[in-house]
Structure formats: C-alpha cells, structure tokens
C-alpha cells in the first residue's frame, strides 16, 4: 500500500503532462495535416520559408505554385506549406457591404501659440516672431475664406 502512494504523484504528473502538452499538440498536428490535404488549385499559400504563391497544380505529395509578377512556377512538397491565406471559397462567398462613410472635413492645422513677455520691451527676435505670426494669421484667414 505504501508503494502505491509513492507511485501516485508520478502517475498524476504523467496524466497532467498528457492533457496539457501531448493531447493539444496532436490536435494541432491533425488540423495542420487536414489543411495541407485540402489544398486545391487556386488557393493562395505561404510556405514555411515565407514564400507566398498561388497553387497551380496539386499532386500526391507535391504542389506547383506560381510566384511573383513574372509568374514563376516551381514545385514544392506539401509539408512545406505553413498556412492557406486565401481560398476560392472565400473569394466566391458574398462579402458584407460596408456602409458608405460620409467624407469628413479635414482637420484645420493648429498654429503654435506664441508666448508674450509681460514687460513692454521687445527685442529684435520678439519683433521678428510677432511679424511672422501676423503673416501666418493673414494666410490662415485667406485660406478660410476660400
């Protein structure tokens, strides 16, 4: 009976590892194999290496894909497919129509606020800044009138 209590934590650890690690991994592997076996002509795929292409021909263990603007074709193994991006079924399915949004007015450009000195003295740089701000306000007023 004492040896049974010693084996109980080991059995529990194996069960926990099965349900947390092994079982989900097998489910994921089964889904990936199903996805690879259901690839058909016209599907857009991404390979494990990052190559994007369109399936032109499907064979038993290989695929012929078309890549790039030059429509270069090459053959690759099915196991190198990472995921199917776009299939013919999703292209033919009706898409939901989005409501047309009204054109929004462009936000007005906010001009930076100028800090004024409390004292009545203005230096050369202060007078130059005030001249620029008056010119900018005149330009803004003209653009608002149009």
Task: Write up what this structure looks like.
The chain has three helices and five strands, in the order H-E-E-E-E-E-H-H. With about 150 residues, the chain is α+β, with helices and mostly antiparallel strands. Strand 3 (about 60-65) and strand 4 (about 70-75) form a beta hairpin. The radius of gyration is 34 Å and the shape is flat. Mean pLDDT is about 75; it is low at about 95-105.
Fill in the keyword field for this structure.
146 residues; alpha+beta
Structural class: alpha+beta
Biggest sheet, in brief? 5 strands, antiparallel
Low-confidence runs = 93-103
Relative strand content: 15-25%
In DSSP terms (H or I, runs of 4 or more residues), the helix count works out at 3
The SSE order reads: HEEEEEHH
Overall radius of gyration: 34 Å
Q: Could you tell me the mean pLDDT?
A: 77
Morphology: flat
| CA-CA gap between termini | 95 Å
In spatial order, strands of the major sheet run 4-3-2-1-5
Q: What is the number of beta strands? A: 5
Helix % is 40-55%
């Amino acid at each position: 009976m004492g040896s049974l209590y010693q084996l109980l934590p080991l059995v529990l650890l194996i069960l926990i590892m099965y349900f947390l690690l092994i079982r989900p991994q097998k489910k994921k592997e089964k889904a990936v194999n199903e996805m690879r076996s259901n690839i058909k002509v016209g599907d857009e795929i991404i390979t494990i290496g990052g190559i994007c292409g369109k399936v032109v021909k499907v064979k038993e263990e290989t695929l012929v894909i078309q890549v790039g603007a030059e429509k270069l074709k090459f053959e690759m193994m099915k196991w190198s497919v990472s995921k199917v991006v776009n299939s013919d079924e999703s292209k033919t399915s009706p898409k939901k129509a989005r409501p047309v949004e009204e054109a929004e007015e462009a936000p007005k450009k906010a001009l930076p606020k100028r800090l004024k000195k409390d004292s009545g003295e203005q230096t050369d740089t202060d007078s130059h800044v005030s001249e620029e701000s008056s010119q900018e306000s005149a330009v803004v007023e003209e653009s608002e009138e149009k």
